[in-house]
Amino acid sequence: MKTALRLGLLIIAFWPGVPAFAEDKNLEDRLKQVEEELRQYRAAAKQSQDHERRDGASTASNEPGIGSLPEVGRDLRTSTAAPLSFGSSGSGRLVYAKPFVAAPKAIVGGYMDIQYRSHRKGVMETGDYNAIRNNEGVTNGFDQQRFVPFIYADITEHLKFASEMEIEHGIRGAGEIEISLEFAHLDYLVSEPFNIRAGILLIPIGKFNLLHDSPLNDLTDRPLVSQFIIPSTMSETGAGFYGTFYPGATGKLDYELYVTTGPCGYNPTGEPRINEETGTKNSRQRKCENTADGLDINNGKAVSGRVAFSPVLGIEVAGSGYFGNSSPSSYNPLSITAIDWTLQKGPFEIIGEAAWAYARGNSRAIAGNTFNSIAPGTILTGINTFNPLAAPPQRMQGFYIQGNYHFMPSFLTALSPKRFGEGSTFTAVIRYDQVNLNRDNRGENQGQLEQISFGLNYRPVEDAVFKISYQYMPKAFNPNSGQRIHDSALVVSAATYF
C-alpha cells in the first residue's frame, strides 16, 4: 500500500511535464530516464519493506533481550514480547532483559560533604600510629566524611521504593571505611492517613534521625544528643505504618509506627556495648558483631513511633519513643524517648531536641557471659566506664537548642546578583549541646559532654552550603587518651545534593 502511494505521488509529480516532453526531440531518452528512476525507487521501497518485516519479527520475539545490544537499553519492549521469567530463553543478552531497561523508573541522586577541622587538643584519631605518637592524636585534618547515593523509584502509582547508601571516610582503608544501607524500603500508598512501609527503616526517634543530611544542616557536626543518646543514623529492618491527618482548619498531625529487629546491646561474649565513651552508638543493628550478620540476637522485636503536631505553618512539636530487648539471654530492654520542636517566624528559626535513654540491667552481667565468667546479676564495676569504681551506664540524657537567622545583605546582591540573588542566603547559627552518658554515676562528671557552637554559612542555592563554625567545648572527650578534656575547634565544610 505504501509503495503504490509513493509511485502515484511520483507519477503526479512528473505529469505536468509530459506535454513538454512530446515536443522535445529527446523525448524517448527522457522517458527511459523516468523508467529507470521508477525501477530504482521500486527496488529501494522493497528493501525498506524487507527491513521493516525483519525488525517486526525481532520485536515480536518471545526471547527477551534480543536485538542490537547498543539499542536494547533504548527500545521499548512491545506488548507482544514475553515478560522476563524463569521460562525465558536466551544467553548473555538476558542481562539486558530487565523491565527497567525498557521503561526506566528509578531516579539516582545523593549528597556529599567535605570538611576541614582544627582542634586545640590532639583529639583526631590516627589509628595504629597512636602508639608511635604516645597515644596522642593529630590536631587538624581534612576528611570527606560522607558520600551518600540515593535511589528512588515510582514502581506504580501506589508502590514506591526509596533507598540510601552511606559511604563514610571513603578514602580510608578497608578496616576503617563504613559502607551501609541507611534505609531501603517499599511503600504501599493506601491513603494519606494510612500507608504501609517495609524494609530497612529509619527509626522515628526525634526529628534529626529522619532529617540528618549534611546539606540540610546549618552546622557541620551533628548535635551531641543525636550522636550518643539517639545514635543517628539509627535504622533497623522491619515494617509498619505512617500517615497524616488534618485536625482543625490549619492543623496537621503526622505519625509513624514500626516493628523492627531491635537493638544489639551485647557482644557475643556478653560484654555490654552501651558505655560512657560512645553512648548508645554501638547498639545499632548495623553495628552488631559480624557473627550476628545484622540479624536479631534474640526472639524479641522493638517498637518505635513518632507523633508530630503542627497547629499552624511554622510550628511543630513531636514526641517519639523506642523500646526493645537488647540482650540475647535475658530481659534487658533499651528504651529511648524524645521530644523535638521547630519554631519558624520570618527569618528566625528555633529548633531543638531532648532525649532520655534507659538501658535496663546494662550495669550487671547477663547469663552466659564469658568475658569475665562471673555470676549473672553481678555489678560490672569498672567496665565500660572511666571511673574504675563505677558501673556501666544505664540512664542517659541530653538535649540541644539551636537558633538560626537567615539573611542576605543588599550590598552583596547589588554587587553580584548572579551569586547573591534570589535563592541564595546566609545563615547565622548558635547551638548549645549537652549530654550525660552516665546519670547513675552521680558523684562524677565523667559522662558529661558540653559544647557551644557559633556558625555562619552561605547557600548559593538551597541544596548546597558552605559552612564555618567555632566550637567551644568545656567538656569534651579525647578518644586517643581516653580522658575527658577541655577543647575548642574551628570547622570549615561544604555539602551539596547532586
UniProtKB/TrEMBL annotation:
Keywords: Signal. The keyword Signal applies. InterPro entries: Porin_dom_sf (IPR023614). Residues 1-22 form the signal peptide. The keyword Signal applies. Residues 42-73 are annotated as: Disordered. It comes from the Bacteria. This is Porin. It comes from Nitrospira lenta.
